Structures
1.
Amino acid sequence: MNTRFLATLRAVAHHGSLAGAARQLNLATASVSDQIRALEKELNTTLLIRRGRNVVLTEAGQVALGPAADILLKVDELKHLIQLGELSGHLRVGSIATALISIMPPTLRLMAERHPRILLKVVPGTSTHLYRTLERGDLDCALIVRPHFPLPKSLFWSEIRREPLTFISPSNLPGDTAEDLLRTAPFIRMDREAWTGRLINEYLADADISTRDLFEMDAAEAIINLVAQGLGVTLLPDYGIRPPLGRSIRKLAVGDDRYARSVGLLSGRGPSEGLVRALATAMGEGLAQAQ
C-alpha cells in the first residue's frame, strides 16, 4: 500500500474537497482523484462520496482514516529516527543474579545515555531458566554462564567477561593453603546442578579435593554472606565479590584459567539484532570504565 495515497486521503478529509487537498499536496486535482481511486481499489471499498461541491468520507472512509493517520505517524517517526541514526524499540534481556548487580548497572546507564528510545525489560533468573526462556522466544537475549553443551546454530554467543574461580574464606580463618582449608573447613557449595556448580565440581575432582559440605545452594550472594559470618569456606567465580557491610573476607584466585567462568550474551537472529549489538557494546564499555 502506497503511504502517499493515505496522506492524500487525510488531506481530502481535512479540506473536504479534492481541489483543497491538491493545493496542500502540490498536485493536480486529477492526480488526487486518481490516488483516491487507486486506494479504493486496493481496499475494495468506496472511501469518498460527493455532497454538493464538496466530498465527504463514507463510513468505510471514516474507519480507514484513524489507522491511516497512525501509519503516517509511524512513517514520520521512522524517517526522523533514520535521520538521527537513533535506535528504538523494545528489548527483553535476561540476566543471572551476579551479572545483574555487577555488569548490568553500568550497562543500563550507558544505554539510557546513548539509546533512550530503547525500552529495556530486564528479567532475572538462573542460566538454565534463562536459556530455556530464550529458546521459547520469550527473551531477545540473555546474559548467562556459557552453556556446557554445544549451542545450536540458531543461537550466538558473545563473551562479556571471564571470572576467575576463587577461594573465599573468613579473613580470620587460620590455615596454610586454600586446598588444606577446602579439605578441613566446612564447605558452602554452589548447587551441583547449576552451570557454575558444574565448573566448581570439575575443579574439585581434578584437584582430588574432598570437601566437608555444610550447605548447598544456587545463590552466590547468600553464600558470601554465610562465609563472612564464619560458617565455612567456598569456591566461586569472582564476579566482583565484596564482603557484606561490616564484615571481611579473604579471596585467593585458583590461578587456572581452565576453571574461569565465561559470562556472555546469548541471542538469536531476529528484528532485535541491532538492539542486542548496542547492548553488547554498552556492556563491554561499561566494564572497561569500571576497571
2.
Amino acid sequence: MATPLRVSLLATFMVAALAIGMNAAQAAEVKVMAANAVREAYRELVSAFEKSSGHRVDTIWGGSGGIAKRVRGGEVADIVIIAAPNIDKLILEGKLVKGSRADFATSGVGIAVRTGLPRPDVSSAEALRKTVLAADSVAYSSGPSGTYVADLFRKMGIADQIRHKVRQPASGVQIGELLARGEADLGFQQVSELLQVTGIVYLGPLPAEIQNITVYAAGLHAAAPAPEAARALMKFLTAPEAGPIIRKIGMDAAGN
C-alpha cells in the first residue's frame, strides 16, 4: 500500500507532468548512471516519476570513481549522478553540460561491524582510533568515503600500523556486503550504503568532530539522447517533495 507521503509526491508530479504536456505518446527512455550511495531513495523517486511522466528510466549502478571513468571513456547516458566533485570535473572536461549540475543529496560516513562481533566504542575520535587499532581487519571503499577515511587514518598517525589489515575493494563494491561475507570485521562507507545491508550491525556515523559530508549531484550528459526527459527527471529528483524520501534512508536532501 502506498504511504501518504508517496501518494502526495506522486500527485504533485502528476500535476506538474500534465502542466508541461507529458503523456505516454511523448514517452522517452532515460538512461542514468548513478552511485550506489543514492540507490534506495532514487529507486522510490524514479518509480513515482515513471508513473507520473510516462517515461521509462534505465539505471546503471556503480561507484563514483568507476562511473566517472566510464563517462571519460566515452560511455553515454542521459544523466550522471555521482559525488559532486566528479560532476564538476566532468563538466570542465566537456563530458557533461555546463550549468547542468543539480545537487540531489548529502551523506556522511558511517561505521559498521559484521553481525556476531562485539559492538566497539566509536563515540569519539580517540575511541574510534583505538577501535581501528584493535580490529583484526578494516575495510573502506574506493569512493569519496574511502578517500576521506584513508586520509583520516593518516592524520591520526595509524595508517602505517594498520596497513597490513586494510581491505579496499574496487569502485562500486559494497563494504557492508564484504563485512557480511566475513571478509572484514570493521567497515566504513556512506551511511546510506550501510543501513540497507543485512548481516552487519550499523554502529552510527563518524563522530561529529571528524565527520565528512559528501554531496551527490546530477549532471546532464553532453550527448544525452533524451535531454528533455532527462531534465524533467533531474527536476523531479531535486524538488522539495523529494526531501522526506531522501532523509528516510540516512541522507539529507541537498537543495531543501
3.
Amino acid sequence: MSRRLVDRYMEPLLAGNRVLCRELVHKEVAADVPGRKLYEDLLWPAMERVEQLYRKDQINIATEHMATRINRTLADQLQASLVKRSPNGKRVVIMCAHGEPEELGAQMCSDLFESDGWDVYFVGGGVPNDEMLGLVGQLRPDILLIFGTQPRGVPVIRELVDKIREIGCNPTMNIIVSGGVFNRADGLWREISADHFAPTAREALVTANHAEPRPAEVRIPGAPKKRRRRRRPPLLAAAESS
C-alpha cells in the first residue's frame, strides 16, 4: 500500500470528514485489499501521524479526538473482514494507557492477535495494578502486552512488572511493551524489566509468536526476596520532553 494513499486519507481524517474517510477505505475493500493490510498499512500509520502531530502541537485536541474516533469506527468495521486463522492455543492479555488514542492502538493489536489464532483478553486502560495481578494469575496468559504508555505512567508500569515477577503469579509469561513513550525512549523497556519491545502491532505479533516461555525462577526456601532499588529511569526525562 502506497504512502500516497495514507497522505490522501490524512486530509479528510484531520478535517473530521467521516464520509470521505469511509468512502476511501470502502473503495480499497471493494478492490480486494485485505482488511489486515488496511489495519497495518493505513489505519496504523495514520494513527501514528495523528499522535505525532498532536504531540508537536500541530493539531489541537479536538482534531486529535475526531481523527481517532474515525479511525476507531473504521477499525470496528474492518474487524469482521480479518481472516481468522486456526486457534494456536496461546493466550494474550492486552492493556493500555487510559486515553482514546491508546485504546485504539490496543484495540487494533487485539484484533490482529485474535485473527492470528490467539485467545485475546482486551482489558483497556485505567485498571489498577492489583486487579491486573489478579487477572494475570487467573488467566495465566503466555503474553501480557502493554500498549501506549505515557511518561507519567512509566512508574506504574514498572511497579506492575516488579510485582508480577516478585509474586510469581505467572512466572513463564512474557511481557511485551509497545507504543507511546517506549517508541520514543530507546531502551526504556529494558529499564522497567520488560521481556520484549515492539514498536507496532505487526512487530508485537511477530515477537509474541516467537517468544519462548520465560524460565521459571527457582526460589530457595527461607531465602529473602530480592528487592529492586526504586529509581527514576534515566531515559524517562528525555521521553517526557519529546
